[in-house]
Amino acid sequence: MAKLKTNKRGSGDVEIKNAAKTLLANIRFLDVDNPVKTIVVTSSIPNEGKSYVLQLLCEAIATSGKTVLLVECDLRRRTLASRLGVHARHGLYGVLSGDVTAQSAIVATHTPNMYFLDAEPNIPNPSDLFASHRFALLLEGLSKAYDYVLLDTPPVTAFVDAAVLSHLVDATFLVIRENFTRREQVRNTYDQLSKTGGKISGVIMNYCKYQSGDYYYSYYYGEQDGGSAPKIQESSSSTGASEPEKKPKAAHHPPISQRKPSTPLERSSSGDTGWSSDSMDGSYSGGSSANAVGFSPALSPRAEKSSNRRSI
Q1: pLDDT the model gives residue 304
Q2: Which of 36, 160, 170, 188 is most buried, with most CB under 10 Å away?
Q3: What is the pLDDT of residue 178?
Q4: What is the pLDDT of residues 223-252, one digit of tens each?
Q5: Cα–Cα distance measured from residue 72 to residue 75, given in angstroms and rounded to the nearest whole number
Q6: pTM, entire model
Q7: More confident residue, 249 or 268
Q8: For the chain, where are the E strands, in sequence order?
Q9: Nearest 10 degrees: CA dihedral of 133, 28, 201, 284?
Q10: What does residue 38 show for φ and ψ, rounded to 5 degrees?
Q11: How far apart are CA 190 and CA 184, in angstroms?
């Protein structure tokens, strides 16, 4: 699947959005008969970029014309409100306690069709809150009101919240930061989610090497090499008049046209996915660059063969 360079400064904005749309397309085709509506996005350890990936996915859903609700379920480290630039007066705990309605707690974001349900600070026993019958009923009601409901959770190895929530939703995705997360941590996360009955649907690779054809981005978003097509000179037979033959000038040659600069989005297009045999620290590796978002359909330790082979 597509893997992209992510640059939060905006230089790779087109590729970031396209990869998020590719991820959304994969989610839509996970189960055509029973479409995925509620999703948990989590990670094994902190600083793998799960909240950033979640935001990109929500924006891709919203720009496709579907309504999406983003719920803050990382109650110990709330970051979504500052990322989205929205702040609500009420939150998740107020809705579950019956103090306010869900409609009054949910706020609109700056992206059309994208909504946000924040959580209050210092909520005691978050895992018990998510395991309650009230939360299950709330999630069921939200899934009927919105096309998609996405939950941001804490890392699995840090807290049990994601494992509790994973069996309540239609799909659970694990964000893995390449050359950062150790393979043993990924295995432990997978085992923990499986034991709780979580529906683990795939892996989202982050900070990984971009893999795509540069030609297509150059074709659609930049200039192709080679310049413009040569002009077609009409022959004398088609115009009906002949022109006198011109002798070439002896001591003058036209300047050689220089090659037009290619698109600045130049990057490597080769790289392996899966477990890196060259990784000495045991980290999960899908390439060797920085900042990328991609989609892998399953946790598989099988490495793909490299596309760069020496020709015989």
Answers
A1: 41
A2: 170
A3: 86
A4: 444 444 445 555 544 445 545 555 555 544
A5: 7
A6: 0.66
A7: 249
A8: 3-5, 38-43, 68-72, 107-108, 114-117, 148-152, 171-177, 200-206, 292-294
A9: -130
A10: -110, 130
A11: 10
Structure token digits, residue 38 = 């509620």
Q: CB-based contacts of 158: which residues, under 8 Å, 6+ apart?
A: 45, 46
> How far apart are the C-alpha atoms of 70 and 182, rounded to whole Å?
29
Instruction: Give me the percent of the chain exceeding a pLDDT of 90.
Output: 38
- Strand order, beta sheet including 107-108: 3-5, 292-294, 200-206, 171-177, 38-43, 148-152, 68-72, 114-117, 107-108
- 23 has pLDDT over 50: yes
User: What is the rounded CA–CA span in Å between residue 102 and residue 138?
Assistant: 8
Q: Are strands 38-43 and 68-72 parallel, antiparallel or unpaired?
A: unpaired
Q: Is 227 left (phi over 0), alpha (psi -120 to 50) or beta?
A: left
* Distance in angstroms (rounded) separating the CA atoms of residues 37 and 221: 33
> Which residues fall within 8 angstroms of residue 255, CB to CB, at 6 or more apart?
none
Q: DSSP H helical segments within 64-211, as ranges?
A: 80-84, 92-97, 102-105, 126-130, 133-145, 161-166, 183-195
pLDDT, tens digit, 9 for 90 and up, residues 61-107: 999 999 999 999 998 888 898 889 998 889 999 999 999 999 999 99
**Which pLDDT band holds residue 276 (cuts at 50, 70, 90)?**
very low
Summary mean pLDDT of the chain: 74
Residue 270 makes CB contacts below 8 A (sequence gap 6+) with 211, 306, 307, 308
Query: By C-alpha distance, which of 274, 278, 288, 51 is closest to 179?
Result: 288
Residue 309: partners with Cβ closer than 8 Å, 6 or more residues away: none
